[in-house]
Amino acid sequence: MLKTELLVVGAGPAGLAAAIEAKKGGVKDLLLVDLNMRPGGQLFKQIHKFFGSKAHRAGIRGIDIGTQMLEEAKELGIDIWLNTACVGLFDDKIACLEKGQPDGSTKIVYVQPEKIILATGGQENVVRFKGWTTPGVMGAGAAQTMINVNRVQPGQKIVMLGTGNVGLIVSYQLMQAGCEVVALVEAAPKIGGYGVHASKISRAGVPIFTKHTIKEVKGNGPNGRVSEVVIVELDEKWNPIEGTEKTFEADTVTLAAGLKPVSDLVKLQDIELVFNGPFGGWVPTHTRDMESTCPGIYVAGDTTGVEEANTALEEGRLAGISAAQSLGYMKDADAEALKDEIWDRLAGLRMGPFGEKRAVAKKELMDAFPEVARG
Amino acid sequence: MCMRVSDHVILGQDLNPKMIEITVDGQKIPAKEGEPILAALLAQDIMVNRYTVKRNEPRGLFCGIGQCTDCAMIVNGKANVRTCITPAADGMVVETQYGYGGAK
Amino acid sequence: MAIADVGYISKQELIDAKQDISDERYAKGPVAVIECVQEIPCNPCEGACRFGAITIGEPITNLPKINEAACTGCGVCVAQCPGLAIFIVNKAYSDTEATVAFPYEYVPIPKEGEEWEGVNRKGEVLCKAKIVKVMNPKSFDRTPVVTVAIPKEFADEVRSVKRK
What we know:
The structure holds 3 protein chains of 3 kinds.
Chain A: E1 2-9, H1 13-24, E2 30-33, H2 62-75, E3 79-81, E4 85-90, E5 94-100, E6 106-118, E7 122-124, E8 137-139, H3 140-148, E9 157-161, H4 165-176, E10 180-185, H5 195-203, E11 208-209, E12 212-218, E13 228-233, E14 246-249, E15 252-255, E16 259-261, H6 264-268, E17 273-276, E18 281-284, E19 297-299, H7 309-326, H8 332-349, H9 352-367
Parallel strand pairs in A: 1-2, 1-6, 2-3, 6-19, 8-15, 9-10, 9-15, 10-11
Antiparallel strand pairs in A: 4-5, 5-6, 7-16, 12-13, 13-14, 17-18
Helix pairs in contact in A: 1-2, 1-7, 3-4, 4-5, 7-8
Chain B: E1 19-24, E2 27-32, H1 37-43, E3 48-51, E4 58-60, E5 72-75, E6 78-82, E7 93-95, E8 97-98
Parallel strand pairs in B: 1-7, 3-8
Antiparallel strand pairs in B: 1-2, 3-4, 5-6, 5-7
Chain C: H1 3-6, H2 11-16, H3 23-27, E1 31-34, H4 44-48, E2 54-55, E3 65-66, H5 76-80, E4 86-90, E5 97-103, E6 115-119, E7 125-135, E8 145-151, E9 160-161
């Protein structure tokens, strides 16, 4: 069995940041695995400039942050196994990896690290309506991957369901890729994401229908593809109001109805989870060090509550520093000072009308950490 | 109809990608070497990848990152290949998948 | 109606956020108009201005405030704003025309001398818009800034051009 000091699962913003900080903190033997063929998680489809503090990469496009981090990881000599899924997590921190081989096959490898950081990210929610399986109905993330990573349009006339930041940003990026966005549809009475993102959509002349949802998607296009989208207004109790239907000609529907944490691996261990609405579902409670109730297993990023790339980066840093500290590579005072700074920045990112509910959610999540589990 | 994003204000121009050829249901189509098979199909406006087991309903791109399996096709004779995360290679033979992967 | 209801900002929201510009300042020439009325964690604009005319401070969710006397209307902040929410308005451009500079991240990028259509915050076409300047230096990091000349009466309304 392979031994290592630290295993990081997931090479998105949180996992990459964790690995980089751990390595900088002195960890010698570190393995970072990701099930995709490229590292970076969803960073490489984020072609917009990030919000946040200028001191920490705000104003820089997600793709460029991804490139910088990969370069940093390379300089630090971080070992990344791609096409590698962590499919099992057993007692005594034994992880089962399905390691991708150059010929496309996979090989099972068991690893026993001293510490583990789980940064497995989030997963898009699905919305079901009549015709939701029609070809042309897809996740907003799928559409974003196609235009920004693969440089191909998923369709030409698109209806977006959801006006959180993902719905707004992906709508804008679809237009940047030359697609026509017909309308945005939002069940809530208000637009969910930032007004500045909504303003870009409005300036482009695209209507946003709040208090509306998709009633039906018709698949009369070529080979049964989406041909029409019927939307309907909702009353105060979120019930459709008959007679308010509007029909749009479209070949694509993109769903941006939030994400949920990917917690499969967390569930394989006896880690305590807490249900947390604002964070998208069941999430592991953790300490200020991002350590879960299973000593030596840390969590970071969307796995521990769906937020944004900039918060995932900071949580990853916390986990990486904590792992290096607990392995004895960092002096407690140095590690604590760094963590204090990061928590301050996280507090800044979790302020204001959009952020404060996440600040409350994070506090509740951490307050739920059972005293008996503290080391 | 070509649906490639050839020019983009942020991504720039897609300059001289290496083009190869793959065969899809008996028809030759161009592909960029190494791009997911699915992207090459979308560029030709091909959206349906497979038909379901029980109801024979069409399915196409849904998650785009290898999680949902709606884009599974038969590639070089092997069924259930997720085309959104499988790179295209010259001469690849791709077929629409029916049910578990048997012939139509 | 507020921005979260309709997706575009109202004049009242700009006044409430103290982001409206005085007539006296407009008379002096180009000035940055910041249309950022929600408290979101973001501050690159503050660091972008070398004249110190934009203040956010702590916490970073504070709304940006423009010091209209210090602002030279140089436009460096426009491309630095991740929300594409800063515009340069010059109401003293000529007797009949004003100019508006805005970020424009689509292809084709307008070219100087071309005539496009000016649109308001809802995307409605208001008037012809003559492209008088297009800036896209490396420091703007692929956010081109386009300046259009438009009839003066639309200076408070035109915020982009209709995409081609």
